[in-house]
Structure formats: structure tokens, C-alpha cells
Design goal:
The structure holds two protein chains of two kinds.
Chain A (H helix, E strand, L loop, with lengths): L3 H9 L4 H22 L2 H18 L9 H19 L20 H20 L2 H10 L7 H8 L3 H31 L1
Helix pairs in contact in A: 1-2, 2-3, 2-4, 3-4, 4-7, 7-8
Chain B lengths: L2 H12 L5 H13 L1 H20 L11 H7 L9 H11 L1 H32 L10 H17 L7 H7 L1 H10 L1 H13 L5 H13 L11 H14 L20 H13 L8 E5 L3 E5 L3 E6 L6 E7 L12 E7 L5 E8 L8 E6 L4 E7 L8 E2 L5 E6 L2 E6 L4 E3 L15 E5 L3 E5 L5 E5 L4 E7 L2 E7 L10 E7 L4 E6 L2
Antiparallel strand pairs in B: 1-2, 2-3, 3-4, 5-6, 6-7, 7-8, 9-10, 10-11, 11-12, 13-14, 14-15, 16-17, 17-18, 18-19
Helix pairs in contact in B: 1-2, 1-3, 2-3, 7-9, 7-10, 10-11, 11-12
Classes of the chains: A mainly alpha, B alpha+beta.
């Protein structure tokens, strides 16, 4: 399999099929990431389309000293932020019907799974934009490394790690308060 | 390893971002401590929950590849020579503009450079058995040549035109060196005159004393007044030696450090600030794109103690995809210099040990990714690091690798309090996991701890036309919430 940089070279020398290969490789990763950011399926698809058109038009500016995927995610991140700015808000995360599906699980497991998902979504809403982005990048289909994330976010790698690790401590505190809140509601 | 250490390193362990030696300590501890194992299981569950909640494999997204392929200009990167050329021009526009600027500068500056070269040749043509003239002789020669230069009538009022007409006489003064400068400075001090002679003397003094500092001056006396006031401010509390270098450089030639620092003072500041990598009550270590500086902050020997030019080492650059990395021993006496890469296919470079006390650099290893942790023993004699899947222990005293760490050795503990987060004008001091304070200063720089109540930082001197040497050391007293500059070379 050709690596990303070889494909970029081929596109730049006029072989358009190489760009289709790049899209096949990354389209779903980018649409998933955009969905995390904007929480709307159609918007995520639209942004992904814009991202790839931009990538194609700007491909000659890609610096091959860096990883292609980090460049791609950087463009996707900026496009999503533009979109959110246009809509004047940072998306409040809610569980979408389409993703609220668990296949083949026992009903009790399904309930627990949905509850966990809801808790995670609530937790993500308590995070600031940077911490949220770091989590999204960490759980992309490519599982970006801390060094990749640092490059995309233009932060130091140690800062990225520190923030990511601290998020888990926050999650632990959040769960305690969240579960306390739920059981108080049950008693009522 | 105890439970506190286990918890402190747990996330790195789960993310497999830990060195092999620590990894096995973690596993050993977990096998012997049920509470920590439970804690580990819980964290792993949280991670899985988070990942599962963000998993979108059940969702059905529509591919837009057909739409993308329909709207893009398929001939944008066509085979046509013209298209390809315009693409290369656009892609390398930075390089071409730099080349254009260089060519223009060469055309404009060429004659000036040639002139300087001629002067330099004249000075360097002095016989090797050259003996510095006595002060009285120098005075007579300077006076005689100044008289000749100022005696020649010129239509211009520009002192440089007089020098040009009498270049040999001017070069003769310069060739006398410091005794000539001393005599001319005495002349400035003994009279109030401010004419052509003073202008010529100022130009000659600046050349002899390498005084390239930009001064807004309109006459020879203006330069002299500025020079005297600058001399007064150096040699003061902020710069005891006057030239920035500490008085006792312990085994290293002071002159060579002075020369290196004079060059740094003229260099461009580059893209970033000085990066502070080590601080203690007696020493600071910081670096920029080419130099590592060790600063002695003891009251009796305040000043720059070592300067290492790391450009000749095979360690990569300050920024880019192959990046130089440093790791200073707990006592500040040694520094490991290596590199890390941002690209998988980039080759890793060499790793060196810089013995700060003896000013010696030795290559230790090659192809080590310094991205992973380097751990020092508490006594700064051993360090341990990973190379690929191998763990290596190095004995700095005997300069050799060890098969295992001596059993009585301890790893260095992180000192408390410590700087947990920082931007250019603020930082957070963490006293422990519960208590921290945010410190804001008007100084833009990088911060570390000097002692438990004092933050110390290397900050850029504010102003325009800042050079690499324009830094200052600032101390911030946490209790009094006040900052002051303590060193300004």
C-alpha cells in the first residue's frame, strides 16, 4: 500500500485517482471527527466535503516534513470552528438518536450502556474547548499520538498529555456528582 | 514503588506512554496491591466508556467523495509544463522571495562589505611579532594621524568622508588597538570639545571597542556620553563583571566565553524565547536555537558560567521535524542532549552527555528517541533511558553502560513546589495536588523554581530590535508577590 506522501506526490503530478484513494482512506475518519465537533450528521458531511475540496486546492502547500494526517485534521478542525462560529455557539453535546443504538446487547446491558453514554456526553459538556478537542483527537479512527495532537493544536506535547490525563481525574469527580444526582432523583 | 507513585504514573501506563523499567515496577506493584489494581481497573473502564461513547461505527454517514470529485478542478495539477512550473513557484514562494531579498541586499551592501574586508586585511596584516605600543607612544601616533585626517579639507561635513580620504591614517589608529581607544576616551573626558576630531575619535573607538550597540547619536560627544553611561550601568549589581560572564569560570577561558557572548548579543532572537530547562538556588540552564547557556546565580559569582554552541552536534534543530531535546541532572552538573522526530520515517540522531563542570561533550549513543523519559538517579551519577525496546543505564562517573542499576540508587524525585503550567507572562506554581497559585508578571519569559518561595525566570528585555543576548533574569517572590530583575548582561 502506498503511503500518504506518495499519494500526495502523485496527485501533484496530475494523477487524480490518487486523490480518490486519499479520500477513501480518510473520509470516514474526518466525518466522524466533524460529527464530534458539530453534533449534526448533515453538517458533518457538508464540512467533510469542504475539507477535502480545500485539501485538494491547497495540496501544493503541504509540507512533506510533516505527517499528512495531522495536516488534514488541522484543516478539519479549522473548518469545524468556522462552522461553529457561523452558528455562534460551541455545540452542546446531546446523544443523537442515530448513535443511540446498541446492537445485539441484552436489554439490561443496553440500558447501562445508554446511561454511560449519556454521562460521558454530559461530562464532555463540562469541559473547555481545548480539553474536548484533545479527547476527540485521541479517539479518532487513527488514534492520533500525543505528538500528532500537539502539532495540530500548536501546543507542547507535555501540555497535551497533562490536559488529557487531568480530564480523567475530572471525569472521576464528575461521575461521583452525577451518580449522586441520579440517585437523589430516584428517591424523589 | 508505593501507591502514590503508582497513581501518579497510572494514566501514562494505561496509555502505554511509559518506559519499560517503570512499566515493570507498575506491574509488580499492581500484583501486590489489590486497592491499586481496583483503581487501575476503574480507570481502564472509564477510558473504555469514553471511547465507546465517542464510537460512531454504528452510524451511517453518506460518502461525499463523488461530490468532491465533481467540484474540484481535475486539471489543477495537470502535466503541462507551465502548470507544473507555476505550482512549484507557488509552493516555494518563501524560498524565492528570500533569494530575491538576498540578491537585492548583496547588490546594495556589496561595496560596504568590500570596504570592511579591506580594513580587516589592513589590520590583520600586522606582523605576528606585533608588540602593543606603550600608552605614550600610542598617544603621539593617534594625535599625529588625527591631525592629518582632520587637516585635509573636504567639501563634506560627514566625518566618514574625511576618513575615506585618509584611510591609511585611520587604519594606523585602529591598528594600535586598545591603547589608542584608552587615549581617545581620556581626550573626551578632559575637554568639552565636540567637533570633527571628536566625531572621528568616536568612530575609531567604536571600531576598536567593538561597540556595535545602536545609539541615537548625532555627534562624537553624544556617543561618548552614551558609552560612559552604558559602562556605568554594567559592572553594577545587575551585571557584576560588566560583560555578562561570571568572574570565576572554573577551568574555561573567560575570554572565549566573552567572545561567544558578544556574538550572541548581535544575533537575531530567532522564533522563540530562551527556553528554561533547569533552575535551582545556584544555577539556571536555558537554550535557544543554537546555544545552551548555564547561568550561575550565586551572589558571589553571578553571571554566565558556560555557553555551549550545539550547532556542530548531530542533534537536530530547535524546531522542525527533528527537534533537539535536553535533560539536566538533578544537581545541574550534567545535561543530556539528544533529539526526537515528528516523522516516523525520519532518522534519529545522536545522544550526547554534556559535563557542565568540565565543559566536555561526549557522544553516548545514537538513534535514541528523547521523546521518552530520561530518568536521573538522585545523586546525578546514573541515568536511564529507552532505546527502541531496550532499557539502558549509563554511569556518568566511569563513562560506561551498566547492566543494571546499583541496588542502593534512588531515582530523583520531583521537587515541590513546581511550575505546573505556564504561558509567557504567567505561570502556575503547584505546591501539591490540591494547592496551587497563579503568578502573573509583566515580564515575558519562562519560569522555574529557585527555592520554595521564589520563582526564577529568563525573560526577554522589552523593546524594539531585540537581539538574542537581550535577556534578563527575573526573580518573583511568591510571598510578597513582587518581581525584580536580578541580572541583565
Amino acid at each position: 500500500m502506498k503511503d500518504d506522501k506518495e499519494l500526495v506526490k502523485e496527485v501533484l503530478s496530475g494523477r487524480i485517482a490518487a486523490f480518490e484513494e486519499i479520500m477513501r482512506r480518510y473520509e470516514m475518519s474526518i466525518v466522524h471527527f466533524c460529527f464530534d465537533m458539530v453534533r449534526n450528521k448533515e453538517s458533518a458531511e457538508d464540512i467533510t466535503q469542504e475539507v477535502f475540496v480545500t485539501v485538494y486546492n491547497k495540496l501544493f502547500t503541504f509540507n512533506s516534513d510533516y505527517k499528512f494526517s495531522t495536516w488534514l485534521y488541522q484543516i478539519a478542525k479549522n473548518r469545524c470552528i468556522d462552522h461553529m462560529r457561523r452558528n455562534r455557539k460551541f455545540q452542546h453535546l446531546e446523544l443523537m438518536e442515530a448513535e443511540d443504538m446498541t446492537s445485539g446487547a441484552r436489554p439490561d446491558q443496553e440500558v447501562e450502556f445508554k446511561e454511560t453514554k449519556r454521562a460521558v456526553m454530559e461530562f464532555l459538556n463540562t469541559l473547555n474547548k481545548t480539553d474536548r478537542l484533545i479527547l476527540f483527537f485521541r479517539y479518532t479512527r487513527e488514534s492520533l499520538t500525543f505528538s500528532d495532537i500537539a502539532q495540530i493544536m500548536k501546543m507542547s506535547e507535555s501540555n497535551v498529555k497533562k490536559r488529557y490525563y487531568r480530564t480523567y481525574e475530572k471525569y472521576e469527580d464528575f461521575l461521583e456528582a452525577y451518580k449522586g444526582g441520579i440517585s437523589a432523583l430516584c428517591k424523589e | 514503588m508505593d501507591c502514590r507513585d503508582f497513581k501518579a504514573n497510572l494514566m501514562e501506563y494505561i496509555e502505554e506512554d511509559i518506559n519499560i523499567s517503570l512499566n515493570s515496577h507498575m506491574e509488580e506493584h499492581m500484583n501486590s496491591c489489590p486497592a491499586c489494581r481496583e483503581f487501575y481497573n476503574l480507570r481502564v473502564k472509564y477510558r473504555k466508556d469514553m471511547e465507546a461513547a465517542l464510537d460512531k461505527s454504528n452510524m451511517d454517514f453518506q460518502s461525499r467523495s463523488t461530490a468532491v470529485m465533481g467540484v474540484i478542478d481535475r486539471n489543477r495539477y495537470g502535466q503541462g509544463a507551465l502548470k507544473r512550473m507555476s505550482y512549484y513557484l507557488l509552493r516555494n514562494r518563501g524560498l524565492y522571495s528570500t533569494l530575491a531579498v538576498v540578491v537585492v541586499l548583496a547588490v546594495l551592501m556589496g561595496p560596504v562589505v568590500m570596504e570592511r574586508y579591506k580594513n580587516w586585511r589592513t589590520a590583520s596584516n600586522r606582523p605576528s611579532t606585533y608588540v602593543e605600543p606603550k600608552k605614550e607612544d600610542a598617544a603621539a601616533i593617534v594625535e599625529e594621524n588625527l591631525r592629518k585626517i582632520t587637516g585635509e579639507l573636504s567639501a563634506s561635513s560627514n566625518p566618514y568622508d574625511y576618513i575615506k580620504l585618509n584611510q591609511d591614517n585611520y587604519d594606523r589608529i585602529i591598528s594600535l588597538g586598545k591603547p589608542a581607544a584608552d587615549y581617545m576616551l581620556e581626550q573626551f573626558a578632559s575637554t568639552d570639545s565636540n567637533g570633527l576630531k571628536e566625531s572621528i575619535m568616536a568612530i575609531a573607538c567604536r571600531e576598536i571597542l567593538h561597540d556595535n550597540t545602536y545609539v541615537l547619536e548625532s555627534s562624537g560627544r553624544d556617543w561618548y556620553n552614551s558609552y560612559v553611561s552604558r559602562q556605568k550601568s554594567s559592572g553594577s549589581e545587575l551585571n557584576p563583571s560588566g560583560d555578562g560572564i561570571c568572574l570565576n569560570t572554573k577551568g574555561v577561558k573567560r575570554e572565549s566565553l566573552v567572545q561567544m557572548f558578544m556574538e550572541i548579543k548581535e544575533m537575531s532572537p530567532g522564533v522563540g524565547y530562551w527556553r528554561l530547562i533547569y533552575s535551582s538556588s545556584s544555577r539556571m540552564v536555558f537554550y535557544n536555537y543554537r546555544h545552551l547557556i548555564v547561568y550561575d546565580n550565586t551572589p558571589e559569582n553571578k553571571g554566565i558560567f558556560r555557553i555551549l554552541d550545539f550547532e556542530p552536534l548531530n542533534v537536530g534543530y530547535y524546531q522542525g521535524s527533528s527537534v533537539v531535546r535536553f535533560n539536566v541532572s538533578p544537581d545541574g552538573s550534567k545535561c543530556i542532549i539528544g533529539n526526537t522526530t515528528a516523522e516516523k520515517d525520519e532518522k534519529l540522531k545522536d545522544m550526547y552527555l554534556y559535563d557542565i563542570e568540565n565543559n566536555a561533550v561526549n557522544k553516548i549513543d545514537a538513534e535514541v528517541n528523547m521523546n521518552s523519559d530520561v530518568k536521573w538517579s538522585a545523586d546525578s551519577e546514573y541515568f536511564i533511558y529507552s532505546k527502541a525496546s531496550d532499557t539502558r543505564i549509563y554511569d556518568t562517573k566511569n563513562m560506561r553502560f551498566m547492566s543494571s542499576m546499583p541496588s542502593d540508587e534512588q531515582f530523583a524525585e520531583r521537587k515541590y513546589p513546581y511550575i505546573s503550567e505556564q504561558s509567557v507572562s504567567s505561570c502556575t506554581v503547584a505546591f501539591d495536588s490540591k494547592r496551587s497559585v497563579e503568578v502573573k508578571t509583566k515580564y515575558n519569559g519562562e519560569w522555574g523554581m529557585k527555592d520554595s518561595g521564589t520563582i526564577i525566570g529568563v525573560a526577554i528585555v522589552p523593546g524594539e530590535n531585540v537581539k538574542l543576548g537581550d535577556f534578563q533574569i527575573v526573580e518573583y517572590d511568591i510571598n510578597n508577590k513582587s518581581a525584580k530583575v536580578v541580572f541583565k548582561p
